[in-house]
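SEVERITY: medium
COMPONENT: batch folding queue
REPORTER: lab tech (J.R.)

DESCRIPTION
The queue accepted two submissions in a row. Attaching both inputs and their returned structure tokens so the on-call engineer can compare them side by side.

ATTACHMENT 1
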Amino acid sequence: VPDRLHRAVMEAVLGYPVRLVFAEKPLATTLEDAGALVSLAGKRNIPVIVNYSRRFVTEISRLKQDIADNAYGAFIAGSGLYGKGILHNGTHLLDLLAYLLGPITGARELCRMHDFYDDDPTVSAVLQIGNRGMFTVQGIDCSKYTVFEADLLFEQARIRLTDSCFTLEEYRVRESERFSGYKNLRLTRTIATDMNRAMLNAVEHIHQVLSRGVSLRCSAADAYAVMQTALGLGVGGQAWLGS
């Protein structure tokens, strides 16, 4: 259903003795509504999984584990592209960052435009990712074309997620072949992800939650946290700082 109806529909669903709710993103359109849903689901003891689809891509989950295992060294900086509203589509990028690198603890708006929704601007911003590094988000007018990319720079590697995350590129540090004493990043792997199976993977994850009690891949609390950043940027003016 449209984003503005998420709260009403989910409140109705949570009134039934369901075992789990799989909700579309964003969880709601206001923090008040999202918070009410998180609270209600908790009171009813009903798990809620939110469809930030890239969390259900096998290669992105492996990337998360590799980052946690320090396979690339420390995160230095990054950048990304998106369009069609900071809440509606931008939260896909914000959630991907939170999933891979940890919570977004601060943000400063650079500029904004209204390329699709009157009440949901596409915002360009600089984000602080915990104590790791900075990430620049660039909004692109969705009336021109659709684009979704993330470029992550680590001490020992560069990871590019392109084509809406259907492709993952890995670059590794190598000695320069042109300049003695210098190092460059060289493409070492190009991987076609199973992004096209994200929904099927999500269904499998739901089965594992219900049958084996595994932890939720993307909870209502996760979705609420990313909404805090998005709405802080979309509504809060030039600057917003997290706790």
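ATTACHMENT 2
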Amino acid sequence: MTARLHPTDSVLEIAAKLEAAGFEAWCVGGAIRDALLGGAPLDWDLATPATPEQVRAIFGRRRTIPVGIEFGTVSVLDDEGVHHEVTTFRRDVRTDGRHAVVEFGASLEEDLARRDFTINAIAYRPKTDETRDPFGGRDDLKRGLVRAVGNAEARLREDRLRALRAIRFAGRYEFSIEPGTLDAIRSSAPHLTRLSHERVQQELVKTMEQVRLPSRALRLWRDVGALRALVPTLAELDDVALDTLDELPRAEDRKSVV
């Protein structure tokens, strides 16, 4: 098996059942990224040409939940009741910066082309031990680089939250942001007000939880104009004030206090 890519037994069983029904099954997304970086992710997503209805027919209604069926996503329960997302290959028909309308019938390459960053656009097929990496995501992982798939301006117009996600990934893995992608983030900042408060709050919480030194991420929020757009009262925070965020108790710290 490809070095470092070791999906869980449950994921392998789901993939094998899709393949037995005549559909390719590819592991995709953050689990691939984190495994290649040396982690041991438990949450593996799958992509397949099977439609949501076909996925539900293969695994049965009692083991599937249509969590995002309009976007092609069905949650498949393993024998322990753990959820695993299985999503149909798809392409974007149109987007408005917040929501996308998708259509099925796409190829794996088209599905990967609609993803945000190269490090998230790598796919692995357990049946054949084959990896697809059409945008050079593995090289970017080695270089420590966050880079948009294809045209950076277009990727960020499709979903404005991607600007904040890029900053979080850069902070979490201590990566740099590719210059063209960083320029697109700056261009995207005035449009971040179109995002819902809930999505922005979730991204901020993830940043505080996942980034070892959150001041670095929030400094980028400030420098690209994201703070001015989203939280104007914090836009003038200096580096000293932002550095205090690094001293706040983390979730793991609180657990150790009895």
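NOTES FROM REPORTER
Confidence is low (pLDDT under 50) at residues 253-258.
No errors were logged for either attachment.
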